[in-house]
Recover the amino acids of this structure.
């Protein structure tokens, strides 16, 4: 019995993992294990022999079981030690050098525009990017047959087969916000509505998604002269120069009468865009006096109220101000471009501290 004891104590001490231990348990004290078989042999012994051997075998079985449990615990501790060593982490190391994100030039420009118009008493209004064709066209005095619908390269939303209602559109301009604001607030109104607009067009100065800011002022005595002053004041502040040179061209928009397109003097020399100098003109906005039909569509009485409106290409003026020659780069998500043209986070543009820093 001593041999048996020594053998198993040694084997257990040498077991390298839990599977080996389990094998030894079966071999020694399992149903058909060596010690179990010995215990079965007790039945064939004389009562005197049994009285000596019984307690001895029981003690041996207990000793083997304790040794198995102790070794199992030791192996578990070792495994945990090993894992802790592998997953060790020095929390006192300095943090990894992380690059800070930047504010996209479009967001920056939008903030600048908002800051300037806020100073002039305009608040910010919003409308949906998916809109009905009534808001995008009809209410703006663009009836179904009007060529402006075709010219705008509109993206139409899908309608289920058999649904004959006119499809919704991705808004082609921010002008529908004029109607929504009139409906919601009623005159008098002074708002700008910056946001995304969509047209199926793609080249160096056009992307299928781009940004506009709509402006709308409605009151009893709004005039074209106020429109002109407001735009000049805005552009001068925006470009942070003493004066900008603007060209008001008589034009036509269904939603304004009279209408004017405004170009700004610039140069493209060496692929670099500069404002205020050069022999080129870049069209940056459309404007005019709000058409009586548009006022009516918004529930505003054209016999009492009149207004001016304008729509500015945010991307266009961002390109001009920051010398970005290709519009498409705005939306390429090229990290090098974003780091180069991006603005420091946490620097809110304002007229006193400076618009762009
Ligand atoms: N909605 C026009 C466009 O996207 C821009 C525009 C022109 C807006 C004249 C106006 C406006 O408010 O008065 O081309």
């Amino acid at each position: 019995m001593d041999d048996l004891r020594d053998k198993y104590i040694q084997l257990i001490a040498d077991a390298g993992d839990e599977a080996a231990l389990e094998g030894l348990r079966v071999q020694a004290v399992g149903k058909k294990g060596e010690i179990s078989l010995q215990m079965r042999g007790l039945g064939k012994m004389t009562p005197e022999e049994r009285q000596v051997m019984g307690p001895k075998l029981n003690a041996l079985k207990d000793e083997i079981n304790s040794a198995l449990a102790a070794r199992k615990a030791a192996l578990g501790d070792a495994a945990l030690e090993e894992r802790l060593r592998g997953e060790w982490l020095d929390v006192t190391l300095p943090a990894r050098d992380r690059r800070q994100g930047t504010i996209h030039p479009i967001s920056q420009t939008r903030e600048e525009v908002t800051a300037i118009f806020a100073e002039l008493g305009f608040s910010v209004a919003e409308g949906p990017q998916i809109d009905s064709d009534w808001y995008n066209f009809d209410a703006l005095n663009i009836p179904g047959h009007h060529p402006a619908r075709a010219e705008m390269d509109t993206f139409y939303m899908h309608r289920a087969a058999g649904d004959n209602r006119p499809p919704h559109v991705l808004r082609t301009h921010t002008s529908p916000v004029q109607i929504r604001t009139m409906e919601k607030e009623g005159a008098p109104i002074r708002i700008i509505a910056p946001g995304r607009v969509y047209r199926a067009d793609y080249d160096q100065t056009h992307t299928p998604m781009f940004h506009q800011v709509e402006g709308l002022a409605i009151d009893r005595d709004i005039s074209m002269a106020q429109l002109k002053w407001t735009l000049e004041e805005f552009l001068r502040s925006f470009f942070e120069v003493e004066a900008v040179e603007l060209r008001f061209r008589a034009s036509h928009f269904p939603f304004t009468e009279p209408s004017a397109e405004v170009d700004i003097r610039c140069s493209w020399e060496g692929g670099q865009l500069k404002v205020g100098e050069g022999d080129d003109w870049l069209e940056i906005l459309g404007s005019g006096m709000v058409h009586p039909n548009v006022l009516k569509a918004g529930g505003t009485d054209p016999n009492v109220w009149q207004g001016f409106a304008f729509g500015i290409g945010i991307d266009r003026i961002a390109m001009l101000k920051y010398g970005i020659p290709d519009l498409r780069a705005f939306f390429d998500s090229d990290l090098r471009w974003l780091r180069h043209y991006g603005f420091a986070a946490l620097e809110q543009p304002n007229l006193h501290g400076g618009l762009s820093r």
The pocket of 3,4-dihydroxyphenylalanine is lined by residues 173, 175, 214, 253, 256, 286-288, 309-311 (CB under 6 Å).
